[in-house]
Design a protein that fits this description.
four-stranded antiparallel beta sheet, Quinoprotein_ADH-like_sf, WD40/YVTN_repeat-like_dom_sf, mainly beta, signal, YncE family protein, 2 helices
Length: 404
């Protein structure tokens, strides 16, 4: 991540846009901010909706098992993925933001579990792009493609695609195309790469090598995918053409690989894991696209701040929360926020997870039965929210807007 001047320019341009939008919203006397936390229980199939400001428990939705939680890009819906029982529950978060250029309107209603349940053999990754959501079924290799609005207005009629054999895979919508993982001929072996298909399921171009592809994220209109030997960057084609896939090796970084990715919002960059005790900043198109940041001990979870574009937060097993400045590539502050959570043991053991809700970092503390709210400005604990059961997975939705 060496093109700091270009990144800084993009940061301040984005900041100016944010100030203008905020100024427009501030012209409304009834501007409000609302954030909600959705917490998956580790021991039971329950997702709890919590008001992030008051700590009030808004609802508890009973599902079949501890879910992986994936919010839509709008935050209007939340997908509770339960692969082992072949289901994806859909939650209406009750927060809807509507952009009006100079300001946004916010509408707040009760959260609700939709009657519609997405089913499959082993549904897994939910990936959104270009106004479409793709659900990949590991048990069949099939992709379910749909728009978020159809979940809410009763018009759900997804496109079903079968791009390959069953495997632990993913599909990412890009315009009129999808980037999908390619399985090994031997089903016991990891994925071998990525390919582009059109919305009829036909392959476009050649397979690009990406051994054991796992993890993806979008920043602006660009996707990144993790591989055992690097990352694949997918950029939109010119004039509506198919996306262009480029494999970028990470051999220079030493032992490790990228398998989890987060994408910047106001800045175009990616933050990925690298081995057990490092992260890597990725800036596509840079002469030196990777910057590895070593951590004092093993990483538990990490998150990006959508409002403060240069901030990333990393929790390590010693209970410390680290503030990473993505422009300098330096950790600028570290504070103790929980007791140590060892990364030894099963990967599904209850450990903290992070989400950013406005000016707070929300951290589940499973052993204490709490969600801890940490100030993004000072990295000090502001308050705690007691949560029934064993709080584990977490996501945050919300924002600011005018009410009418």
């Amino acid at each position: 991540m060496t093109c700091i001047s270009s990144v800084t320019t993009r940061l301040w341009a984005s900041a100016a846009v944010t100030v203008l939008a905020t100024g427009g919203a501030m012209a409304h006397d009834d501007a409000e901010s609302h954030y909600r936390l959705f917490v998956g229980d580790h021991a039971e199939g329950i997702v709890r909706a919590i008001d992030a400001e008051s700590g009030e428990a808004l609802a508890a939705f009973e599902i079949d098992m501890t879910p992986a939680l994936t919010p839509s890009a709008s935050g209007r819906t939340l997908f509770a993925v339960q692969g082992d029982v072949g289901k994806v529950a859909v939650i209406d978060t009750g927060i809807a933001l509507e952009d009006h250029g100079d300001h946004a309107d916010i509408m707040v209603t009760d959260p609700a579990l939709l009657d519609l349940v997405l089913t499959g053999t082993k549904p897994a990754h939910v990936v959104e792009g270009s106004g479409q959501i793709a659900l990949f079924d590991d048990g069949t290799g099939d992709v379910t493609l749909f728009a978020e609005s159809t979940l809410l207005d009763g018009s759900f009629a997804p496109v079903m695609l079968s791009p390959g054999a069953a495997h632990h895979g993913l599909a990412a919508p890009m315009g009129d195309y999808l980037v999908v993982s390619v399985p090994h001929e031997d089903p016991e072996q990891p994925r071998v790469g990525l390919k582009v298909i059109d919305k009829a399921g036909a392959q476009v171009g050649e397979v690009v090598n990406c051994p054991a592809v796992h993890g993806q994220a979008q920043s602006a209109r660009v996707f990144a995918f993790g591989c055992k030997d690097g990352v694949v960057i997918a950029t939109p084609g010119q004039g509506g053409a198919a996306p262009v896939l480029e494999h970028v090796p990470t051999a220079e970084l030493g032992e490790g690989n990228v398998s989890t990715l987060k994408g910047g919002t106001a800045l175009q960059f990616f933050l990925g894991n690298y081995g057990s005790d490092a992260v890597v900043l990725i800036e596509p198109g840079s002469a030196a696209p990777f910057r590895k940041i070593d951590l004092p001990t093993r990483r538990v979870d990490f998150a990006l701040d959508p409002a403060i574009a240069r901030n990333a937060y990393i929790l390590t097993e010693d209970g410390q929360l680290h503030l990473l400045d993505v422009l300098s590539g330096k950790i600028t502050q570290s504070v103790r926020v929980t007791e140590p959570y060892s990364m030894d043991g099963h990967w599904r053991d209850p450990r903290p997870r992070l989400a950013v809700a406005g000016d707070h970092i929300a951290i589940t503390d499973p052993l204490q039965g709490l969600v801890r709210l940490i100030s993004t400005e000072t990295l000090t604990e502001v308050r705690t929210i007691p949560v029934e059961g064993v709080p584990y997975t977490i996501t945050a939705v919300g924002g600011s807007g005018a009410t009418h």
